[in-house]
Amino acid sequence: MSLKFLDKLSQEFTQLLESEYGYDTLLIDNNASWLRLNFSRVYHISFLSEKFKALQEFYNDILAKYLNMVVFNSEDFTTFQENVLIALLKNNELQMNESEIWDKLILWGKAKTPNLPTDLKE
Fold first, then answer.
1. Could you tell me which InterPro entries the record lists for this protein (predicted)?
2. 34-77 pLDDT, tens per residue?
3. Which residues of 30-41 are buried (b: 16+ CB within 10 A; e: fewer)?
C-alpha cells in the first residue's frame, strides 16, 4: 500500500473516532484483535485527540504487560512521537529493567537528533 493511501486512511479513521458516537469504545469491544494487529498506527492516532482516552487506556493496559515486545523492539520505535513515549514511560507498571529503558531512550533520542556529533570532544 502506498504511504499516501495510509495517510488518507488515518485521516478518515481519526474523523470517524472523533464523532460523537463513541466509536473508539465500539472498536475496543468488537475489534480488539484488529486493534492489536494494527498497534503502532492506531496507538499513534489515539494521541491525536483527547476524545480517544478509551483507546489510550486499552493500549496502555497492553503496554504495561508487553512493552518491550510490542514497542521497544518494533521496527518503527524511533518514529514514535514524544507525547506517546512520555505516556508509555509514565506507566508505573513497566516490566523492564531501568537500564534497558534508558538504552532504548538513547536510541530514540539519537534518531530524533541526527545532527549530534559522534565525537564527544567536538
1. BACK
2. 877 777 778 888 888 777 888 888 888 887 777 767 777 777 77
3. eeeeebeeebbe
Cα–Cα dist 88/93, whole Å: 10
Which residue from 79, 77, 74, 29 is spatially nearest to 54, judged by alpha carbons? 29
Which residue bears the cell 465500539? 26
Kindly report the average pLDDT of the chain as a whole number: 77
Which residues lie below 8 Å from residue 87, measured CB to CB, with a gap of 6+? Answer: 47, 56, 60
Residue span of the structural domain in which 87 resides: 3-112
Give one word for 22, left, alpha or beta, with left for phi > 0 and alpha for psi -120 to 50.
Answer: left
Give pLDDT, residue 25: 72
**Amino acid residing at 50:** E
Q: Residue 41 domain-assigned?
A: yes
pTM of the model: 0.54
Neighbours of 24 (CB within 10 A): 25
Is 122 domain-assigned?
no
> How many domains, the chain?
1
d(CA 109, CA 82): 10
